[in-house]
What does this fold into?
Amino acid sequence: MSSAQVAEIDNYHPVDDRLSTAGQPSEAQLRSLAREGFEVVVNLALHDDPRYSLSDEPGLVKSLGMLYVRIPVRFDAPTEEDLQAYFSTMAEHRGRKVFVHCAANKRATAFLGLYRAIKDRWAVDDAFALMRRVWEPDAVWASFIAAMLDKHRGSAVP
It folds into this structure.
């Protein structure tokens, strides 16, 4: 198995040398992530759809020596509590090599954009540039993003 498998994860995007986002990885791709030195796997997807989840992702990730964090975000109903859990997780693991995924890299890139805009104080357009390469938010997510920016930053809609 080659390390190239990491780049083959659906919608894989390296953000910098310590952070990457993607859709759902396979078991083989999780093994490749471990070999590539990732230390933390953050899963924002639900575990109730076999099309978008592995049977025992937490067990596999832990067996590979990585930390597993699950923040189950309903795609049709993201919450501020979900976002705050993501913020806490990212702050707790700052400086470690982190892989954030969901089913298709939509939740992951939206939460990353919010983190950059709210916590890192990036300009909104810059904060959401990666998200916009992956997808354009639907009405639910556009409303959620706008509400979180307004509440936590007092910023205009991206």
The chain has eight helices and five strands. The beta strands are 13-16, 19-22, 40-43, 67-70, 98-101. The longest helix spans residues 106-119.
